[in-house]
Amino acid sequence: MKQLCVLLVEDNPGDQRLVKEALRENDLQCELHIAEDGVQALQFLRREGKYQDAPRPDLILLDLNLPKISGREVLGELKAEEGLKSIPVVVMTTSQADEDISKVYGLNGNCFVTKPVDLDEFLHLIDVIGTFWFSVARLPSGGRP
Questions:
Q1: What is the pLDDT of residues 38-68, one digit of tens each?
Q2: pLDDT in tens, 129-140
Q3: The whole model's pTM is what?
Q4: Which of 125, 115, 8 is nearest to 58 (CA)?
Q5: How far apart are the first and last CA of the chain?
């Protein structure tokens, strides 16, 4: 089975480290790439500039509150592009606002989760996401069942 490729779109270095640690702690084997803002995320996904050899991610973990281009805009643009719209997107944010939840699903986001403040809960969240997307769900790019 091929190793899954995950694009983490997150501007907070602490949250980047937490996701890396949670993946390692939960033994979720994946190729992790990080985009620190919405512009980098879209360049990575479109294979533009320094990202021309970027792999197509099997899963995107997307923060909503990003510099330059917001996560909402990134989600809207990638779900509007034929070659990108089938990539599952899990929105991970601090927001609990009904408006944000509705907007994400209205833009065809696949999942909306609020980042827990507690470290153990955060590790558990990544484990649940990994178990579902890496083991249960069937991914469109040929990822493992």
A1: 999 999 999 999 999 999 999 999 999 999 9
A2: 988 998 898 877
A3: 0.92
A4: 8
A5: 9
Task: For Cα atoms 65, 71, 77, give the angle at the middle one, nearest 5 degrees.
Answer: 160
Segments making up each domain of the chain, as ranges: 10-135
The radius of gyration of the chain from alpha carbons, rounded to an integer in Å, stands at: 14
Cβ atoms of 125 and 116 within 8 Å: the answer is yes
Report the distance separating Cα 96 and Cα 121, nearest Å: 16
Among residues 28, 131, 98, 114, which one has the least CA distance to residue 63? 114
Question: To the nearest whole percent, how much of the chain has pLDDT over 90?
Answer: 75
Distance between CA 65 and CA 94 in Å, rounded?
A: 9
Placement of tokens 């533009």 in the chain: 48
Structure token digits, residue 132? 């579902």
Distance between CA atoms of residues 132 and 141, nearest Å? 16
The CATH class of the 10-135 domain is alpha beta
